[in-house]
Amino acid sequence: MKTLFIRIITFFNTVRSKIAFYPTLVALGGVITAFGMMIIENEGVSRALVESFPKLLIEDGDTALTIMSACIGGLISMMVFSFSMVMLLLSQASSNFSPRLLPGLISDKTHQIILGLYLGTIMYNIFTLFSIEPTDEKYTLPGLSILFGIFLTILCLCAFIYFIHNISQSIQINNILDTIYDTSKERLNAIIEKEKSKDTSLIENFPDTENWHSYTAPETGYFQNISFSNIQDICEEQKTKLHVTVPQGVFALQHRTFFKSEKELDEETINKIFSNINFARGELIGDNYILAFKQMTEIIVKAMSPGINDPGTAINAIDYITELFALRMKKRDSGILISNDVAFLKMAIVTFRELLYNVMASIRTYCKHDPIIVQKLILMLTYLKEQKGCDASYTEAITTELENLIIDAERSFENEYDIQAIRNLSELN
């Protein structure tokens, strides 16, 4: 039952990121509302309303048809324009920043709900139009349904104004970076919180897994999620420990070892373990905070490319990635999960040294020629070195990257003044 629930949640999270998810739901709501209003109209609501508030309702069938047709045509034009704006936003974000940003922008609920409101109102007005006859008079017209359709159309006009404002904000790099940072920060804090108050002796004494029994993945895809509680139950039932050899968020290949077990497992248990592991064809920051570092790195590299040449954006991204690294330094590199004073699972992770190298290697390659960016990176690394209470290996990794950055910069700079400036800055810090 737990496995089914986890799979339903994962499926919902995946589908929710699709641009058609909320529009489809709201459109379906519009159709249901139209049929609901037809049922209400059969109870004579419009007849009672026209006697009490005659000025609110339309008195002629031809006028009603004209108004509803105009509402439908106008909404279709507005929806086409809005979808065009979304496609333009995605195109600009992909070309100016990074294609990896597209899933996050597509899954923006505000845009989806507004587009869904357009579609739902169109569907409602179309089905309401079916119930109108040109010969209808005010006592036989579905007056309340028509009035509600006009109200929804006015609401769509207000939503369109907000849509233009929101989409102009969404394309701004500061807002994009802020969204990436907030999502990854929430994910990292959740992981760090799970590591608190754990017995470090259990981590240090976790057995060597080199000679354990190996098992391969049944399918390819990004290792997205794992149900730790269910895996724990399986480990207790089989009296074994597991070692997942593929880091979460990394693409898993068939016929390559995916996990190891301390004891040999039967086919049923293996299938049960994989039923609690989800593979996907895409990546989400909510599932893998490493993706945030990748996205910010690509934004920095793209901003410093000759076709873009935008050091201001690169500096903004470095500021955000600095805070993410500082937060990552609070997380241990063990990847060992403990429950009820038992270390039952070891997860392969991207270590801090690997993560820092992957980020800095890309940035150094494409940004080492710019003195301002190099100085900003030196300030970032020295700030990270000043973090207290972190593992000594983290500080060693930062020192190594700082030395590599200075070496690459000195080889790239042609002006002696620039070389001396970064030397002075590194010595000062």
UniProtKB/TrEMBL annotation:
The keyword Cytoplasm does not apply. Keywords: Membrane, Transmembrane, Transmembrane helix. The chain crosses the membrane at residues 20-40, 64-90, 111-132, 144-164. It holds the Pfam family DUF2254. InterPro entries: DUF2254_membrane. This is DUF2254 domain-containing protein.
